[in-house]
Specification:
The structure holds two protein chains of two kinds.
Chain A (H helix, E strand, L loop, with lengths): L1 H5 L3 H14 L6 E7 H9 L10 E8 L1 H4 L2 H10 L5 E5 L13 H6 L3 E4 L3 H10 L4 E6 L6 H14 L4 E5 L4 H10 L7 E4 L1 H7 L5 H5 L5 E3 L4 H16 L5 E3 L11 H10 E3 L2 E4 L3 E4 L3 E3 L8 H4 L15 H5 L31 H9 L6 H6 L1
Parallel strand pairs in A: 1-2, 1-7, 3-4, 3-5, 5-6, 7-8, 8-9
Antiparallel strand pairs in A: 10-13, 11-12
Helix pairs in contact in A: 2-12, 3-16, 8-13
Chain B lengths: L4 E8 L6 E6 L2 E6 L13 E5 L2 E6 L1 H13 L3 H10 L17
Antiparallel strand pairs in B: 1-2, 1-4, 2-3, 4-5
The chains are: A alpha/beta, B alpha+beta.
Chain lengths: 375, 102
């Protein structure tokens, strides 16, 4: 019984499950994509799939920034800081992600000065404290983290910090959704929209999905009840033949986003003509680069970057899994050659990747809401 | 990196622009308020923090929800570790720098 108390309002969760079963037309198969890796993690962690009828399928989207980063970018970043006068700074999530010749942690073991930072502003402080060294911050993330990188660059300019640069890998979520929708083998009915990205960009950027693609989008929070409610809202729209953008996460996400954050991003970044995503290939205008006005803080403009390209092993079917054509376990490598300890494909790299989540939670099933409610 | 961590504003920093001391489950650290320039932030307010920057102002009840969500997801410890990692923010206690390394 103890698990029941851990979940907020288990009776509401049971009700949401009933409502989903009531709304889902038994003659129809629903494919709903949750875009955000945080949602994927929560869905597996709570066993939410067990609460859904078999004709409501959740497809795990591209919203895990570590997973979609091509290996060549890691190689490029590490090549800049190969010089002993450099410090490679990155979030902890990056540290175990393999490049061709090892992860940042392995480079550290071989003598590179590699530091975990929890904030880009901490990387800037490292630069201030180590004036004899150059600190390169290896920036990753969607719109949730990009504004913080932008503000940090603005601050570096304001304070005249010269021994600091950013190797920018920031990506934007909308072009990735567009690429998935444009893919000929794609068949999706609606989207659970990302919660924290939307804190920054708001809900308007999703309107084309509703208007042009006629698919509903519900921006969702991360609690089990949030996700189930979002699925209820999506099914309700689908039953009524509607396609609109709704905000289930109103308590955090303003419809217009965070204007100060958008301003900082627009000041510092411009769109790259194209950028490679692991598993999805090249997507036009899907990533951010630092504007020439801030070239002094752009590692790619300041230093020689080899531009390494590493193709993913053909046997790994990450693209098909990302688009929902295959389930993680249907990939030929899943759980055999490709595991969280020895990731081959992008989606096994981070705990928010759908393959890693599937691997970690499918065998030893943790507390699930389904069994908590049943108790 | 993708964690949204709720914190309560304890004090606004009078020395540094856009800095505030927040308390996150008993840990006090500086965070950056630069992305909340359009909000009026006062001590006692709750904010959601991403990578050291307060990103949105939230209610106390929503902060409690978020704290529980982190616990449910098994990420409370990662959140506390992340907040402790903001040690570099605190210039006055500069011996934390090494602690932020792996």
């Amino acid at each position: 019984m103890r698990y029941v108390d851990e979940f907020r309002q288990p009776e509401l969760i049971a009700k949401a499950g009933e409502e989903i079963r009531r709304l889902a037309d038994p003659l129809r198969h629903y494919r709903i994509m949750e875009v955000c890796g945080g949602h994927t993690h929560a869905i597996y962690r709570f066993g939410l799939k067990d609460l859904l009828p078999s004709n409501v399928e959740l497809i795990h989207g591209p919203g895990c920034p570590v997973c979609v980063l091509p290996m060549g970018r890691i190689d490029d970043g590490l090549s800049v800081t190969a010089n002993p006068d450099f410090i490679f700074a990155a979030f902890g999530d990056m540290m175990r992600v393999p490049g061709t010749h090892g992860s940042p942690l392995e480079y550290k073991a071989r003598g590179m000065d590699v530091r975990i930072v929890y904030s880009p502003s901490d990387a800037l402080k490292l630069a201030r404290r180590n004036p004899e060294k150059h600190v390169m911050f290896f920036a990753i993330g969607f719109e949730t983290t990009a504004p913080s990188t932008a503000l940090t660059i603005l601050r570096a300019e304001l304070e005249g910090v010269r021994n600091f640069s950013v190797f920018c890998n920031h990506v934007t979520i909308i072009p990735a959704i567009r690429a998935i929708l444009d893919s000929p083998d794609m068949r999706l009915d609606g989207f659970v929209g990302p919660g924290h990205v939307s804190t920054v960009i708001g809900c308007r950027p999703y309107e084309w999905i509703a208007k042009r693609e006629h698919k509903p989008v519900v921006v969702s929070g991360f609690e089990p009840l949030d996700i189930l409610q979002s699925i209820v809202m999506l099914l309700r729209q689908l039953r009524n033949g509607e396609a609109k953008v709704e905000n289930q996460y109103k308590r955090v996400v303003p419809w217009d986003g965070n204007r100060a954050a958008l301003r900082a991003m627009a000041e510092v970044f411009e769109l790259r003509p194209y950028f490679e995503w692991r598993g999805l290939g090249f997507i036009s205008q899907s990533a951010l680069k630092i504007r020439p006005a801030y070239a002094r803080w752009d590692a790619e403009q300041r230093f020689t970057v080899p531009g390494v390209r590493v193709t993913d092993p053909k046997a790994a079917q990450c693209g098909e899994v990302l688009k929902g054509v295959l389930k993680p376990s249907q990939c030929k490598l899943f759980g055999r050659e490709c595991t969280p300890e020895t990731p081959i494909g992008a989606l096994m790299v981070s705990s928010e990747g759908s393959c890693a989540a599937h691997y970690n939670y499918q065998h030893h099933k943790p507390v699930t809401i389904a069994n908590a409610v049943a108790l | 990196m993708c964690l949204a961590i709720p914190g309560r504003i304890v004090a606004l920093d009078s020395d540094a622009r856009n800095q505030a001391v927040v308390e996150v489950v008993g840990v006090r650290r500086k965070v950056d308020l630069g992305l909340l320039q359009e909000e009026s932030i006062r001590p006692g307010d709750w904010v959601l923090i991403h990578v050291g920057f307060a990103m949105s102002k939230i209610s106390e009840a929503d902060a409690a929800d978020q704290i529980r969500t982190l616990a449910l997801l098994g990420e409370s410890e990662a959140a506390i570790e992340e907040v402790r990692g903001y040690g570099l923010e605190d210039e006055k206690h500069s011996n934390n720098e090494r602690g932020a390394g792996p």
